[in-house]
Every structure is written in C-alpha cells, then in structure tokens.
Amino acid sequence: MGSRVERHQHHHDLVPLAALLSREMRNEKMEKPSVRYGYAAQSRKGEDFFLMKTDCQRVSGNPSSVFSVFAIFDGHNGSAAAIYSRDHLLNHVLNAIPRGLGRDEWLQALPRALVAGFVKTDKEFQSRGLTSGTTVTFVIIDRWTVTVASVGDSRCILDTQGGAVSELTVDHRLEDNVDERERVTASGGEVGRLSIFGGAEIGPLRCWPGGLCLSRSIGDMDVGEFIVPIPYVKQVKLSNAGGRLIIASDGIWDALSSDMAAKSCRGLPAELAAKQVVKEALRTRGLKDDTTCIVVDVIPPDNSTPPSPPPKKQNKFRALLFRKRSHDSASKLSRKLSAVGIVEELFEEGSAMLADRLGNDDTCNQSTTGLFMCAICQTDLAASEGISVHAGSIFSTSSKPWQGPFLCADCRNKKDAMEGKIPSGVKVV
After folding, report:
1. Domain range holding 81?
2. pTM for the complete prediction?
3. Using an 8 Å Cβ cutoff, are 137 and 148 in contact?
4. Using CB atoms within 10 A as the burial measure, which of 93, 104, 216, 305 is most buried?
5. R_g (Cα) of the chain, nearest Å
6. What total of structural domains would you count in the chain?
7. DSSP assignment, residue 63?
8. Could you report the per-residue pLDDT of 96-114, keeping only the tens digit for each?
9. 16 cis-preceded (ω within 30 degrees of 0)
10. Is there a domain that residue 258 lies in?
11. pLDDT tens profile 364-420
C-alpha cells in the first residue's frame, strides 16, 4: 500500500518540461547583466587605438556564451605596435585557452592565457623589426566577471554602488613603481633621468638603453628586453548591483585621479560619461597627449534585487571592497557579498617572471596532434624540443624541472632575455 501512495506523491511533484525550461530561461535572464558602453577621444599625436567588441563567443555558434572585450592601446614612437596589438592580441589570448572548457574553467584559464597572448603578440611584433611600442589595457567581461590585463600606464578603474572607486590595473611607470625599478636594474637595465648640459637631470625616471618611462609594454625592440610584455592581471566578480568601468590612456590619468574621473561622470549614461571624462581632463590640463576613454556599464537586469543603500562608513567599506575568496564556502560568500554590493576578488598576479605566471601543469598541454605545445606561441613541439618553464632558472623554486608548461627554444630565449640572463637583444643602428 505504502509504495502506491509514494508513487502518487511523486507524480504530484513532476513539472512539465516546458515550464522547467521557461523557468531556466528566466533565471538565465535574471543572472545576465547587460553591457552599455561609450567612447570618446581627443587626438594629439594619433597614437591611441582601441577595441570594443561585444559579440565574442566562448563557444562559436552559441549566443548564450557571449562575452565582451574592451581595450586601449597607447602607442609611442609610432603607432605600429598599437595597431598590431589591436588586431592580433585577442586571437592570441583565445588560442591559448584549452578547447572545450565550461564557463567557470574558461574564466579560470583566462589569466594564464592573457600572459601567453601578450608575450606572443610582443614576440611576433618584434620579429617584424619595427621599433614602436604600446601600452595595453585589455578588459574581458563575461556576465559579472571582469578580467583585466595590463602593461604600461593606461588604467582601468571600477566605480561600484556606494561610490567606492578601485583600480583594476597597476601603473608600470618607473617613476612610481619601486618594484619595477628594482626588477629592471636586477635584469641589467639602468634607471635614471635625462641628463642635460651642465649635469642637471630632468623629466621622469627612464630605463636605459632606450629611455622609456614604462617598465612593461608590447614592442619596443630598441630598448632592453627587460621591458617586458607580461601583464598585471586582476579578475573580480561584481555584485548584482553591477558597476562602471573607466578604461583610459594616460592622457586622462595625468590630469585626473581615479576618484576625480569617476565622480566627474556619475549619473550620466556611458556614452556621455566618456565624453565628460575627456572634457574634464582637457579642462584640467589642456591637450598635451592623446586622450582616450571608454566607459563600460555592467547593468543588472530589471528584475534583480534593488541595490543596497551605500554603507555609512566609506573607509570601512574600502577595506571590504575586495574580499579574497576561500574555496570552501566560495559560493555562499559570493551570495552574501553580492547582497551587500561588495566586489569579490577572484585572482590577482603581477609578477614579471614567466615561471610564476604560467604555473605548473598537472595535465600537460598536449595539442590535438598528440605532441606537446609551446605554452606561449602554441606551436607543436617534438618530444626532444620542449623546455619546461621551470628548468634551470636561477629563480626557480620548482623541484620538477620536467613539469610543464613547456616552451619552444625561441620562447625560452625570450624568457631568459626578459629575466636578464642573456645579453639584451638591443641592436644599435
């Protein structure tokens, strides 16, 4: 008798498939923020370039796997490096992500793929023998997750509900960045100001040979190899209140602090906001440099929870703004943080050492042909060719030099040059 009742009970709980699917779609809609963006620029030298692409697909042909890319490239010494990076960097990054990953694994693989893509772009551009260089600030937005990779001094800031402004990039300027000064001198570069007649020193700190003020960039073949293309990478998850990103070249940041830029355009839609930031920068400083700004709003869907009121204590809130995630209760924490409008930090790494950035491979990066692949340029390696990222490095803490990822001889040479282990490839023409 009991089994019959049970069966009856179960039957009662069944939901028609169509209803389930529509419920699923509703949740999907609810979860997915929309992205609005605007762009504004004033040109002085014509060396700033940008990329805005809102229709990239993680799984080609699947519109629900869409993500957006926004980037700024501030060129110097010509615009070739900026244009080349705009046209090729995205593909190099995406090609460095293993195929067939689900969304979460894809997002986890992104920081490492960004490093590989930046280094590959730099290596390919340098092989063309052109001497220009470029900063890159590269932003990938997949629903609530924002991943930023950056070399140079174009900056990306985040303005969130409650008015807390945080920086998602680190400026690679010798003037402001002590760690980078130390790294450059340790790798064999010299750091100093321009000397003028009579021994006076003027201007910002520069790196010699080459005289560049930046310590990281793509291109710049005529400076030392210790000017590296390895990006600082930060990945955060926005709360369900969304947020505003302001991505801009140093024409903005030389004139405005991050707070000033954010405040100057609050309450305006993205398109007008970008114009307002540029206007504000020019009002403060005049047009001394190319000045480019992209504003991106990640907007919660209509039926989401109303944003929480801003916390009373701003400084306390700043400490709360980023919370490192611990894996045990990550999703619970995520929900809690989301409810109070706090941004969750998923990943942050700024080291200029490739062995730190490409990590350890438990699963070797085998290509479809069954051969190993170079972790940077994705070329197939014969078994005898691959050199582990961890092999024979004086900085290596790895006890497993045979453990992947592996580099081809060419990329291995680049790695050594960037770490100052072989004479820099400076060609004095």
Report:
1. 34-172+214-352
2. 0.84
3. yes
4. 216
5. 24
6. 2
7. G
8. 999 889 999 999 999 999 9
9. no
10. yes
11. 455 555 578 899 998 888 766 777 777 765 444 545 556 778 999 999 999 999 998
